[in-house]
Amino acid sequence: MTIEVANKLLELRKKSGMSQEELADKLGISRQSISKWERAESSPDTDNLIALAKIYNVSLDEILLGKESALDEEFSKNEQEEDIPDMGTEFIHVDDENSTVRIGTKGIYVNERSKNNEVRIDENGIYVNGEPKNHVFTRGKNKKGNKFHDLSVLKAIPYPIVAAILYIVFGFAGICGGWDWGWIVFLTIPLYYTLIDSIEYHNPEHFFYPVFALIIFFLWGNECWFGIGYRISWVVFLTIPIYYSICGAIKNESKKKQLESDNL
Asked: Would the pTM of this model clear 0.85, i.e. be above it?
């Protein structure tokens, strides 16, 4: 893919007001694929190009050949006025052909147009090219009407240290298998963070279910815990494909409803 097409895809997405995650959900692909398209590291196939044209309500020529519509021209004229957020009382204000810099009492805004790079830091979080960083989300609701769950406070908790403390407590108290089996608590570390991700992104696929299945396998198989024996507890691993199949079905149903809504 040429850099011109990649830039066009980035421009169309930003004009639509969608994040990479939202567009990926519409197309039924990963956010990383969208990111690679916009960095010219890979190209969308024909089906995805057609889907993109429908989502953005443009022609394929406009995507591939860069032909601008009247709407594009109007957007270009008003781009600065519409896209630059209010930075409050500004101490630094720079505008030229290639960049815009605003630093004020409400935050910092930098737009390097020549490279299609945009950075905004304000009370709502840190955004690079419209994407939230460090899982900091805007207050209110997203484009789909889903309420954001800002769980940054939970992520700030040093959970690995909490797990280590629990292991020590289990060991000295002789509970939950003591020193021999209390180490299982360390397996909950990836579960803790991926559970937060799954809630923030409204996507259960982010949850590290295979590790959860492994924990259940040990708990059921170990006679020191709830033991039913490893000869039986292994069946929990059969639930892994079932879990992801359910996640896929939920995602496809959501995508179907979104497409139906878009066609209305």
From this structure: no
